[in-house]
Recover the amino acids of this structure.
């Protein structure tokens, strides 16, 4: 069990993820200008490929890596005898809870190389944010999440997100609230059990 | 029977499918369907419900994030037609999110309902 504080973002990874392709493009463009100033196939390759690859990288690489790391974490937890009683796959964070032993495992999208496992007793509180705003017929939400505070750090996990607002009684919002309510209940129950 | 009434019976669960008369409610019981929110899958096999439904007295007894299944048995006072309706929904705080409706016309769940009544 780790005793260090949880970390949501690995800044080296985040910066590398964003600026890595930019640096690659810069290198290739410079090379292109020196090696083949008069154009030709080589120049096309050096000027066209890096931006295309960068786009593919930005769109796919993070998700691909996160997916692989999630699988790896599940395997590792099973080997450690961590019972995966409840798992929630959020876009930015995966939450796994062992309700018997009262442990939680976290894996963050922006910190995918660190598997963070800690006792739920370190969670100060857990709650739901239904994202409700507006009044009357304008009332609605575009995000539902559950949150918990561990080591003074607040972790938000979305159970529903949309680029538009939905009424509070729509299926999307109700499903999101149900998932969030359930996760908070699981966390609270696990906390009570280890007390 | 007019076409209008026939169409009406599609929208009215308690209208007889044979003669379009308003049916009588014979029994009503609430159960929990142990499926978790986000993982609902529809089943039309009566055995699935016999195996999995758990009787509850009120909606509040259903754990957060689990589905509810209300069973209502109807009987037509005019022609004797019987139907059992399963309304599956997700209770969310004070509200209900509709999920599915399953019908049994041949009394497939009658024994099960009778047994769970005694339990
Ligand atoms: Zn009838």
């Amino acid at each position: 069990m780790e005793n260090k504080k949880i970390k949501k973002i690995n800044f080296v990874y985040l910066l590398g993820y964003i600026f890595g392709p930019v640096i690659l493009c810069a290198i290739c463009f410079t090379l292109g200008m020196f090696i083949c100033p008069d154009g030709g196939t080589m120049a096309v390759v050096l000027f066209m490929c890096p931006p295309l690859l960068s786009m593919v990288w930005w769109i796919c690489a993070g998700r691909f890596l996160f997916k692989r790391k999630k699988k790896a974490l599940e395997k590792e937890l099973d080997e450690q005898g961590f019972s995966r009683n409840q798992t929630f796959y959020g876009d930015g964070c995966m939450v796994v809870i062992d309700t018997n032993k009262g442990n939680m495992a976290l894996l963050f999208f922006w910190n995918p190389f660190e598997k963070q496992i800690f006792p739920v007793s370190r969670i100060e509180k857990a709650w739901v944010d239904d994202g409700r705003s507006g009044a009357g017929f304008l009332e609605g939400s575009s995000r539902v999440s559950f949150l918990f505070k561990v080591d003074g750090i607040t972790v938000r996990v979305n159970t529903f997100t949309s680029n538009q607002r939905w009424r509070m009684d729509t299926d999307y919002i109700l499903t999101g609230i149900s998932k969030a309510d359930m996760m908070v209940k699981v966390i609270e129950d696990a906390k009570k059990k280890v007390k | 029977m007019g076409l209008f009434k026939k169409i009406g019976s599609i929208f009215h669960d308690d209208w007889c499918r044979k003669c379009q008369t308003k049916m009588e409610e014979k029994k009503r019981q609430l159960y929990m369907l142990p499926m978790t929110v986000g993982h609902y899958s529809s089943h039309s096999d009566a055995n699935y419900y016999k195996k999995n439904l758990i009787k509850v007295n009120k909606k509040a007894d259903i754990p957060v994030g689990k589905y509810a299944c209300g069973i209502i048995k109807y009987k037509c006072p005019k022609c004797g037609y019987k139907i059992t309706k399963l309304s599956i929904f997700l209770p969310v705080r004070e509200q209900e999110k509709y999920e599915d409706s399953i019908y049994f016309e041949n009394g497939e769940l009658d024994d099960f309902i009778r047994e769970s009544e005694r339990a």
